[in-house]
Amino acid sequence: xxxxxxxxxxxxxxxxxxxxxxxxxxxxxxxxxxxxxxxxxxxxxxxxxxxxxxxxxxxxxxxxxxxxxxxxxxxxxxxxxxxxxxxxxxxxxxxxxxxxxxxxxxxxxxxxx
Amino acid sequence: xxxxxxxxxxxxxxxxxxxxxxxxxxxxxxxxxxxxxxxxxxxxxxxxxxxxxxxxxxxxxxxxxxxxxxxxxxxxxxxxxxxxxxxxxxxxxxxxxxxxxxxxxxxxxxxxx
Lengths: 113, 113
Known about the structure:
The complex is a heterodimer.
Chain A: E1 5-7, E2 10-14, E3 19-24, E4 29-37, E5 43-50, E6 55-58, E7 61-66, E8 71-76, E9 85-93, E10 101-103, E11 107-112
Parallel strand pairs in A: 2-11
Antiparallel strand pairs in A: 1-3, 3-8, 4-5, 4-9, 6-7, 7-8, 9-10, 9-11
Chain B: E1 4-6, E2 10-13, E3 19-21, E4 23-25, E5 31-38, E6 42-49, E7 56-57, E8 64-70, E9 73-78, E10 87-94, E11 103-104, E12 108-112
Parallel strand pairs in B: 2-12
Antiparallel strand pairs in B: 1-4, 3-9, 5-6, 5-10, 6-7, 8-9, 10-11, 10-12
């Protein structure tokens, strides 16, 4: 079953602007991950944030996690045309022995040059 | 460069055919996964495996089976292909446990006619 839900479904911004995508989930998690998918290709892992972390940075990416609200956000700063892609959040359920990722439906980001 | 390789990028098969989708990883990962991706439905887990000769059903295993005879190879089998199995199929792998990101293959776009 789908665990995460991204918001918005689609986002269009100008190059140089910041892009923020949100993710909500339903159950307790071990960690939450963000992935990028260029059109028609496989997914690329961007960043992982554990349930005991609140914020994490990687280059132009900033991820926050609020376990009390069961939500996360991905911020891409100073966006570039090459950031155009779909972005997915995925969660690992914290139940014993369960390690598979459950994905949301994604946010489609368009960065206009 | 570590990677997950899916044997075909595009595949066209006839209804009723037995279809094999192959996935090979060179990272010595214990976990391997098969997802299908459909517009509006996101990624859905079909089967996964934590070890050689071991398999677990995901959310949508009906009409599929898997084989993992060697650690590096995880095959998805469509026993009798149907048109509703037309989809993008994505293979992924990860190290043991749930605290790591997945590495995805480039995907196989299967069309059943």
